[in-house]
Amino acid sequence: MLRQLVIIYFAVISEIPVNGRSIDGDDDFVEELHTRHKRSASCNTTPSLKKYKIYVEHTACIAPSSEANLTTAGVSDAEIIEIVNSHNTYRSGTQATDMMKMSWDAEVAYIAQKWAENCETVHDGGMKRRIPGRFRMGQNLFWGSHGTWSEAVKYWYDEIKDFTYDGGDANDFLKVGHYTQVVWAKSIKIGCGYAYCKSNNRHLFVCNYGPPGNGNERYKPYKQGTPCQDCQQGRCVNNLCDCDKICLNGGTLDISTCTCNCKTGYTAPDCSLNCTQKADSGGCISWGASKCKTHGNFPMDCPHMCNICPSK
Ligand SMILES: *[C@@H]1O[C@H](CO)[C@@H](O)[C@H](O)[C@H]1NC(C)=O
Ligand SMILES: *[C@@H]1O[C@H](CO)[C@@H](O)[C@H](O)[C@H]1NC(C)=O
User: Fold this and answer.
1) Which CATH architecture best describes the domain 41-228?
2) What atom of ligand 2 comes closest to residue 272's alpha carbon?
3) pLDDT digits (tens, 9 = 90+) for 100-129
4) Cα torsion at 81, 84, 85, 87 (round to 10°)?
5) Smallest-distance ligand from the CA of 267
6) Which of 116, 297, 306, 274 has the alpha carbon at shortest distance from 208?
7) In the chain, where are the structural domains located?
8) In 111, 143, 195, 204, which residue has its Cα 20 to 30 A from 267's Cα atom?
C-alpha cells in the first residue's frame, strides 16, 4: 500500500473571488449526484453511492462541515477548463516520452468536492477516496485566505525548483510531492473540489488524480526523452499522449497500442468488472470479509465477498 502523496500548502495570495457552482455532466452518475441540492445525499439511500459503503467512512459518504459555505462551494465549467488546461500545459512542457493528456472525471471530482466541504487541511486517506471498481487516487491540497485555481496549480507546479529528476534522496518529498503528482505521466483523470470555510476564512482547493502518482520511483514521474516517443502514432497532441481511455481495476495501459492489459476476470476494452465472469479467488473466504475494509486489493480481487457485485 503506497503512502498517499501529499502535503499541504498554506499560501496567502492576492484576492480574486472564486465563484463556484455545481457541475453539469453527461452521464447518469453526474446527473444524479452533481446537482447542488443533492450533494449531501446519503450512501445508504442513493443507488449510485451505495458502492462506496465498502470502505469505512468513504469521503463520498460524509456530510459537509457546518464551516463550509455551500452557496459558493463547487467548481464551474470555466474553472474545470482552467484546471485541466493548466495541468496539461505544465505536463506538455516536460520532455517526456510517456506523458498522458489529463482529462476531467466527474466521479473523481465528486469525491474531491466532498472532501473540500469537509473543511480539513489534511488528506482524507487513500482508502477513503478510492473508487470501487475503478482506481485508487492521489490528492493535492491547497488553501489560503484567497486564491484561484490557476494559482493553486502553479503553487504545486513551482515545487519544480526543488526537484531533481531521478535524484533519489536529493529530493525532499514534502517539498516536491505536489509537483510530481502534477507531472505524473500515468495520472490520466483529474477531478477537483472547492469550498470556502467560514470561521477561519479559508479557501480550500482539492484535486484528486487517478491513477495516483508518487508510487514506485516517485522521483521519476515520467520518462525523459523525445515527447510522445512511447505513444501510439497519431495519438500525440501538444507533446501529450491521448489514448482517450483509462484502464480500471489494476489494468495497465500500453500506450504504444492504446490498449489495456487487464487483470484476470476484468474485461476489455477498459478492464471493467463483469460479475458474471469474475469469480473470487480461492483465498478470499479464508482471509475473510473483514479484509475488504482494510486491504485495498481485496475489493478488486474478491468482488463477490466484498459486495462489489450488485446482486448482494
Ligand atoms: C455564503 O456565501 C454567500 C455568497 O458569497 C454569502 O452571500 C453568504 O452570506 C455566505 N453564507 C454564510 C453563512 O457565510
Ligand atoms: C458479462 O459476461 C457475460 C458472460 O460472458 C456476458 O454475457 C455479459 O454480457 C457481460 N456483461 C457485461 C456488462 O459486459
Assistant:
1) 3-Layer(aba) Sandwich (3.40)
2) 14
3) 999 999 999 999 999 999 999 999 988 899
4) 160
5) 2
6) 116
7) 41-228, 278-311
8) 111
Which residues lie closer than 8 Å to 288 by C-beta, 6 or more apart?
A: none
Where does residue 5 rank: exposed (0-12), middle (13-18), buried (19+ CB within 10 A)?
buried
Strand, helix or coil at 148? coil
Does residue 69 line the site of ligand 1, with CB under 6 A? yes
| Cα–Cα distance measured from residue 268 to residue 292, given in angstroms and rounded to the nearest whole number | 25
Question: What is the three-state SS of 101-124?
Answer: CCEECHHHHHHHHHHHCCCCCCCC
pTM of the model: 0.86
**Pocket flag, ligand 2, residue 276 (CB < 6 Å):** yes
Q: Where are the alpha helices (DSSP H) in 148-218?
A: 149-157, 173-182
CB 211 within 8 A of CB 135: yes
Scan for cell 479467488, then name that residue.
281
Tell whether omega for the bond before 211 is within 30 degrees of 0, i.e. cis: yes
Distances, alpha carbon 214 to alpha carbons 13, 100, 210, 286, 307, in Å: 27, 15, 11, 32, 29
Between CA 87 and CA 189 the distance in angstroms is 11
C-alpha span between 87 and 257 (Å, rounded): 24
With residue 299 as reference, give the H or E element that holds it.
Answer: helix 298-301
Ligand 2 in reach of 277 Cβ (< 6 A): yes
d(CA 239, CA 208): 23
Distance of CA 274 from the midpoint of ligand 2 (Å): 6
> pLDDT (tens digit, 9 = 90+) per residue, 141-193?
999 998 899 999 999 999 999 999 999 999 999 999 999 999 999 999 999 99
